[in-house]
Specification:
The chain is mainly alpha-helical and about 240 residues long. The chain has one domain (about 5-235). Helices cover about 60% and strands about 5% of the residues. The chain is built from 9 helices and 4 strands; from the N terminus they run H-H-E-H-H-E-E-H-E-H-H-H-H. A two-stranded parallel sheet has the order 1-4. A two-stranded antiparallel ribbon has the order 2-3. The radius of gyration is 19 Å and the shape is globular. It starts with a helix and ends with a helix. InterPro entries: Sestrin. One of its GO terms (biological process) is regulation of response to reactive oxygen species.
Length: about 240
């Protein structure tokens, strides 16, 4: 009985998590319709979110797991993820309005490697727009707000800012356990554990979580391409 009772409490808690997330999405949509934050306020919220993302640790909060022998694939065995912005360092913000995939990166890739830009662009669009329009037990849900928050949070981790996005939405929609999972998948995927996978969005279907994982890796790939292609553009001009 105690075991069953604990399971029932867990199911009940995860059910209310879904309802709370749906309510936050509804409230944020109403706030969007009523008023819009100033550019100064949105810039401030981006800087806050970027700083906070440095203190979201991945596997440090987890139990020690057996090391996975990925180092054999590296010529440089010291290779590994380092936080984009170290504590106390000021890193210039990468503004998408100045250099973005759609207007700059896409055309440069096609110029250097014909047709590949189109293939990569289709891959980004499929991952970004992939949805069943469901959230756990709810159907016919517009998940675009949630998908955009996830995509923009990953870019924020890498110092990339969208001027037209209110980064205050991220803390409303993404809880800490989900942020830990995101940072681990994006930065140190070899450290992902089943416990971490199970700890976020507990009422969501596995297929919905697979959608999330595709979104994470494609957002990271685009962030990396933006920095690389901008550097190439500067060199060529």
């Amino acid at each position: 009985m105690p075991v069953n009772s604990a399971e029932n409490v867990s199911v009940s808690d995860s059910f209310f998590e879904v309802e709370a997330l749906m309510e936050k999405m509804r409230q944020l949509q109403e706030c969007r319709d009523e008023e819009e934050a100033s550019q100064e306020e949105m810039a401030s919220r981006f800087e806050i979110e970027k700083r906070e993302s440095m203190f979201v640790f991945s596997s440090d909060d987890e139990e020690v797991t057996p090391a996975r022998a990925v180092s054999r694939h590296f010529e440089d065995t010291s290779y590994g993820y380092k936080d984009f912005s170290r504590h106390g360092m000021h890193v210039p913000t990468f503004r998408v309005q100045d250099y973005c995939w759609e207007d700059h990166g896409y055309s440069l890739v096609n110029r250097l490697y014909p047709d590949v830009g189109q293939l990569i662009d289709e891959k980004f669009h499929i991952a970004y727009n992939l949805t069943y329009n469901t959230m756990a037990m709810h159907k016919d849900v517009d998940t675009s707000m949630l998908r955009r928050a996830i995509w923009n949070y990953i870019h924020c981790m890498f110092g990339i800012r969208y001027d037209d996005y209110d980064y205050g939405e991220i803390n409303q929609l993404l809880d800490r356990s989900f942020k830990v999972y995101i940072k681990t998948v994006v930065c140190t995927p070899e450290k992902v554990t089943k416990r971490m996978y199970d700890s976020f969005w507990r009422q969501f279907k596995h297929s919905e979580k697979v959608h999330v994982n595709l979104l994470l890796i494609e957002a990271r790939m685009q962030a990396e391409l933006l920095y690389a292609l901008r550097a190439i553009t500067r060199y060529m001009t």
